[in-house]
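Sequence only, no structure available. Ideas?
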Amino acid sequence: MRRAQVDRDAFNQAARLPYELRTSDFEVAMQDVYDFLFDVNTLLLGKGLHRFDDMLRPAAMSGIISDMMTASLAKFSRALVENKHFNGHPDLVKRGAYRNDSVKAGTEGIEIKSTRKPGGAVDTHGARQQWMCVFVYKVDNETEPAMHREPMQFTEVYLAEVVEADFRRNPRGDLGTRTATLHREGVLKLRSNWVYKL
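Reply:
I predicted one. Tokens follow.
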């Protein structure tokens, strides 16, 4: 089994990065996730079990990757910490901007999302002005035998400041949760400030 590696040449050195972020913060945070998955999958395969990537449903995988990227970026960032409010917004907050670095709905920080959809369009729980970072990744669920599958790999990272008008609201049935997604111009705004592209 191969350990994934971040491609340093795939970073956009001209990307606009808020809150004192550096491309090196993204590099080590992404490698943290790669190393975790390599260690876990080595253990699972050694026991004759499925890879972590194959066990999880896509939505669960995206949630875990978002949480891991939030924690890793907070670890390496100079000015951002994890939002200590359970399910608070945004995921990363500016250190010291909120009491105990905890806020239910704040504006100082970055919301982290991940998706398998190329281009970075992703559902959110509401249209709002925010810095939004989207990690696009791919998972090999097809190569056979499964022990030869490629590791999960980040293919794109986008980071942009968006506003409420950049979203479209998605209709939902009686049992669905209302979501919002960047509309065409909003997605173009997000993609214009790409951080990483393979």
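Helices lie at 23-46, 52-55, 58-76, 184-192.
Hope that gets you unstuck.
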